[in-house]
Amino acid sequence: xxxxxxxxxxxxxxxxxxxxxxxxxxxxxxxxxxxxxxxxxxxxxxxxxxxxxxxxxxxxxxxxxxxxxxxxxxxxxxxxxxxxxxxxxxxxxxxxxxxxxxxxxxxxxxxxxxxxxxxxxxxxxxxxxxxxxxxxxxxxxxxxxxxxxx
Length: 150
Fold this sequence. Notes:
Elements: H1 3-30, H2 34-56, H3 90-113, H4 118-145
Helix pairs in contact: 1-2, 1-4, 2-3, 3-4
């Protein structure tokens, strides 16, 4: 893959991260409950962090790339995504975030599946892997905070 194609894909991924960060920033002002607003702030910071990682990613970073096995708790698979509103509770915030990561992961995996060039495929797989990590972090938090036994 040429450097132009690599940069085009990275630019696309960065735009998705900026979009997500802006969404979470906007949601902070709509949250009625402090824990929800704080979670949106953390999610925004996480997305800006993803953007920085992508900005530093070099083609050489993908040489010999083998995606790590990321645990999938499949929690988001069974949850209905609530409508985004100003009165979202913490649980709803986590569900929206999990669903957004799940969709991003699926998008990158789908793109990887449509590419014959191994280098480009690896780039999309790496991006999908990053989204899977974020989804796992959110599902773990959901499991620890929401799915606790009384």
